[in-house]
Amino acid sequence: MRSETLRTLAASHDEALEADEVQYDIGSGPCVDAVVRDHVFVTGRVQDDPRWPEYGRRVHEALGVSSVLAQRLTLPDGNESVAALNIYSRTPDAFGALAMREGLLLATQCSLLVAAHLAHDRAENLTRALTSNRDIGVAIGILMSRHRITRDEALGMLRVVSQDANRRLSDIAADVTDTGDLPDGPRG
Predict the structure, then answer these.
(1) Are 57 and 28 in contact (CB under 8 A)?
(2) Which CATH number fits domain 124-179: 1.10.10.10, 1.10.3720.10, 1.10.620.20, 2.40.30.20?
(3) pTM listed for this prediction
(4) Hey, how many other C-beta atoms are within 10 angstroms of the C-beta on 128?
(5) How many Cα atoms occupy the beta-carbon half-sphere of 68 within 13 Å?
(6) Which of 97, 119, 136, 154 has a Cα at 20 to 30 A from 71?
(7) Is the separation of the CB atoms in 188 and 145 below 8 Å?
(8) Which CATH class is domain 3-95?
(9) pLDDT digits over 93-131, tens only?
């Protein structure tokens, strides 16, 4: 698992965030395993746990963490994202049967929150894509009218300027819709 694919959406405390980041840094730990294996992982003495020797040593020495409960969150069908809930304690053997049940309840609530967050992100991305596509279509129409060229030729002009200026095509299109012509580059 690549560390750049892992991130913490929310943390109750800076130390919890630091404990998460140690896992992301080394690619190993209860959270990583919970995400990969879709299983609940509990350790009462992480510093002595043979499953995560480097992680256990680092979080115990730096943060005093002894107990960790990590559980993968169940997200809606078709969702490519994966998430986990991590609970940390400085107390050895802090998570018994009751804590496991409470962790499951909390994980269920967190799953709903993460799903809502992901749905909001998707909606924003779709809105940006629609706006971008609309601007590109308008810019193509402006260039076709102004330069008496075909749709493909207008799109080609946008692409050339985008590549030459090392700017996104949608940004060039927005310039065209604002000014009526290309900012720089080929003129028909």
Answers:
(1) no
(2) 1.10.10.10
(3) 0.64
(4) 11
(5) 34
(6) 119
(7) no
(8) alpha beta
(9) 999 999 888 988 888 888 888 888 888 988 999 999 998
